[in-house]
Design brief:
Layout (H helix, E strand, L loop, with lengths): L1 H25 L4 H11 L6 H6 L2 H10 L1
C-alpha cells in the first residue's frame, strides 16, 4: 500500500512539473532557462507578491523589465 501511495505522489509531481514547463512555453519562455531562474529565485521569495512574480505569465513582464 505504501509503494502505491508513493508512486501516486511521484506521478502527481511529474504532472505538475510538466504543467509548469508547458505554461512557460505558452508564455513564450524557454523552459530550461525559466526553470533555472525560478529555482534560483524561489528561496528568496518570502512574500506572496514575490512568489506570484515567478509565475510564467508574470515572469515575462519581470524579465523584460530588467
Amino acid at each position: 500500500m505504501r509503494e502505491h501511495q508513493h508512486t501516486g505522489l511521484v506521478i502527481q509531481v511529474d504532472e505538475t512539473r510538466i504543467q509548469v514547463l508547458e505554461t512557460a512555453k505558452a508564455n513564450n519562455l524557454e523552459p530550461y532557462g525559466y526553470l533555472t531562474q525560478i529555482l534560483k529565485a524561489l528561496p528568496y521569495a518570502d512574500t506572496v507578491e514575490k512568489i506570484e512574480a515567478l509565475l510564467p505569465w508574470n515572469f515575462k513582464k519581470m524579465a523584460s523589465a530588467e
